[in-house]
Amino acid sequence: MNILLIAHSGAFFISNITNSKENNFILKSFLFSIIFILYNTLGDNFISVGLFYLYEILLISLFIINYYVKTRLFTSLLFALGSIFLVNTLPVYITNINLLTVLTILLIFLILITRKSEKYLRNFLLIYFLSTYLLQLSPITSNIFLAIMLLKMFFISIFIQYITQRYKKKTAEDYKKLIILEENFEQKVKMEAKKRTISLERLNEKALEKAKTDKLTSTLNKDGILGKIIQYIHDKRIRTFSLLFFDIDNFKGINDKFGHHVGDKALKSLALNVHSLKRDEDFFGRYGGDEFIILLKDATTEQALMIADRYRNSISKNSSPKFTVSMGVSTYPNDGKSVDALLQTADLGLYATKEDGKDGVAYKGVNKIY
């Protein structure tokens, strides 16, 4: 019996060291105990039924204590010390029936506290301990005792097989869940990265757009409008386009007479007029000061002159304060295949308009006008 107690204590300490879970904790204890019981049974010292009942009582007591006390080391020490004390102080007059009664009470209590546990564990504990009652068969011989031990080992083997299958199934399920989680995580990371990339691209586009926008008139600034002209020159799909280059007549006089705030108001008024007439495919920008450029996609020189005259009339009628504009026209590619060449031709037309009395449109390029 002392060897049995040492085996139990060793099993619990091993469970602590290996951090084994509750199922392994129980199984190791049962296996160690049964091995040593069989050793004693098959040897010269046949353990008594009373001592075997005491063994079962101690085992159930340990399980109940371990259910409430989660510290494995404390439970192991308590079992080892309690077992040695009970065995050495067991009164002679305590009968097998008394021990069987205590065992029954503890078994009922064990079933009650494990009713919320997993069904397979509760059933195993019930069958394992109920097999002890077979010792009430008469006469009790070493063969009966051995048969009961083998029966208990059979129950444990089934329990081990069941736990192994459950573990394999759970491991497979956990692995599958892990794969799904990894795939979902990767997908979320990719989606988040894509969102951030799109967001950054939009921010960059807005920043570039803001950098190429004139703050006063909310039109393209010089870099912005010249960039659009360069794009048109390099776009092989666009065969021709025209420029309207113009400024406000007597703009310096407006600033000198009414102040710069009125001059700024005139620039804003001009921008509003142009935006109200501009086609979606055309671009409008402030070249500098009171000079502006309108880029007309696919427009010939004749079309550009007609469009320019509409702009001029609208600005003259709707401007506030009242002012007029002078315009010059150039057309790609005959009037130039570079920005400088096109602006130079348009500027010649603007200068000619000024010489001709202002408030007009002129073309001084190479194209013939009918």
How would you describe what is shown here?
The chain has 370 residues and is of the alpha+beta class. It folds into two domains: 2-175, no CATH class; 222-363, Reverse transcriptase/Diguanylate cyclase domain (Alpha-Beta Plaits, 2-Layer Sandwich), CATH 3.30.70. Helix content is 67%, strand content 9%. It is built from twelve helices and five strands. It has a five-stranded mixed beta sheet with strand order 2-3-1-4-5, sandwiched between helices. The radius of gyration is 50 Å and the shape is rod-shaped. The protein starts with a helix and ends in a 7-residue tail after the last strand. The model is unreliable at 1-7 and 13-20 (pLDDT under 50).
Q: What's the count of strands?
A: 5
Overall 3D shape: rod-shaped
- Beta strand %: 5-15%
Task: Give, in spatial order, the strands making up the sheet with the most strands.
Answer: 2-3-1-4-5
Main sheet properties: 5 strands, mixed
**Integer tally of domains:** 2
Summarize the structure.
This protein has 370 residues and is an alpha+beta fold. The protein contains 12 helices and 5 strands.
